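writing this on my phone so excuse typos. first protein, seq and then structure
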Amino acid sequence: MNMFNAEISGWSSWGRVFQSVRDFEPLIKYIFNRHKLPFTEVKNCIPGTNAVFKVGGLVVKIFALRESGMDTESDYRTEVFGIERANRLGISSPKLLAKGTIKDKYVFHYIIMEHISGNSLGQLNNLMTDEEKVKYARQLREITYRMNTPCEPFNHIDIVNRAMNCKRWGKFPLSFQSERIEYLKQYRIINPVYVHGDLNPDNILIDDSGKLFIIDFTDAVLAPVEYELAVIVCELFHFEKPYMTGYLGDYDSEELAQKCFDGLLLHDFGYNIIHDNLGHIDEMTSLDVLRERLYTAIKRNNRCS
């Protein structure tokens, strides 16, 4: 008899059940018993792509099924590598307690980690003083200093090839698309490092003692450090001066704009970041427009509207 009985066929069917305690509870109970971990009431966590639930002081993440259309095997391996590496390097992140795969009605990959009691940076941002923003940006700098370092290959993602084939960029004007492809054809990665890849406000947690943690390593890749920097500056900090000062110290706006420019053109979420933070997509008629928008936002310390 299967522990999981919902039907999954495509993304919409996964979206209907991935937050359902009722559908996942029998499977979660089995997983906790398998690893001799205390099982208590199952509660929802902040929704994302995967099925994530809180059980007592622990969090269980069950990765989206292959039948949902996601590359669940790659996501699982990438997350495990990232969190184990973070734990090994002393990077502030949840401690990984268990991992594994179960073949039930479907094949489920999962991890169990400690729960960080606190709030996300997104939840706290509007309540912070400038001094607190500087402090947390400095903490993040210490984390990325350790994290954005060379490491062995852990997945097979060619970020340049993926960037050139990303369909989301098709929403830009044709002139921009053409220039971007030519730019990427000439781009050469020098000194790739491990990057988290998605340091957005939901993936930065601050516990009750004021310590900053990072979570969710599923989008990690080997890439130039600009790949990480672009997300931090544009999506996490929204160009705010206290964050920028705390993280970067003194910086040259033109140089920083160029680094973010390269990072955004390479990034798998580059389209989304530009759309949300740098103004109307249909006005981006060339790469120079993007460069100018980045420079302006960095100089003015706010998003372009």
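second protein below, same order as before
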Amino acid sequence: MTNRTIEIAQIMRKLRNRHVRTERDEELQTALHRLFEVGEDGIITHEPVRFTAGQETNGIAFIEGSGGGKTTAIFKVLEGFAPLAKNPETGAPRRIHVKVEAPATLRSVGISFLRQLGVDHISDRAKVYDIWSMVRTRLEVLGVTLVWIDEAQDLFRATTPEESDTVFRMLKGLMQGDNPVVLILSGTERLGRMTSIDPQVDRRFLKVRPTDLAFGADNDQVQMLVESYARLAGLEVDIDPGLINRLIYGARFRFGRVIVTLVEAIEMALYAGDIALTVNHFAESWGRREGCEIMQNVFLVEDFLSIDVGLDDMREAPAESPSKKARKRKKAA
């Protein structure tokens, strides 16, 4: 490995580790602060605020399309939330992060919880009820007061009406009892549609819904991002103002995708030994990731808006309520 290769790798690590705070971070941080008690000394604590006459906690539903940057935003906000940083009795954080892996079942999700809580072996004979009882016990023993379930829409992707109701009861159960937790659910628009089916679940969650990028309104911000990232990499910027619209469109109007495309374009420029970031670097990086032909590359085609880049959440079928699904099955029978 040459010195130049090592230097580029270090630059890329710095760029990928950089986090740009946006309104989504501020909104999430504000919501988080509302859900934890403030002590008599005026300092926020790890104790969840109890609602409904002290019977339950509330949570946060962070809803955004794929590639928006929600996972990074949540990671960064939780890292900066001092009350959950460390339990002095265990030396571990007072929060856990569980990513739902599709296809998901209550059993598989419960096992993922237990692994995050230090339980590596679960008997194949263990019943779902026993697994979730163990989850609640471990949360209490370890002093965990916040649980983040990522890709939470996949909890409902292949469930029957009865199974959906069971998932809703599980979510409510974590937020009730003697040691309830604050729950963060993050996922795509499907998550928002599913949680709204159960009013008791829906009312427990503050909603964070970052807006997509828009032509014109966000061009200056994206332009500044391009220039600041290029500057960190030691590059000049030689692009036409119209490239910003192409970048936003190619990123499906998602902030996180803009960052990914920008960083990969910079990588192309660095390995090419160029001194300036140009449209050709964006075209090459976007084309490789999309696997498209030249005539389907938004950075090369004059009428780039004619290219169908696809909008991820538009492809999701609208969620149906468990009762509606049941009526359809009854009719079919």
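The first helix runs from residue 3 to 17. thats all i got for now
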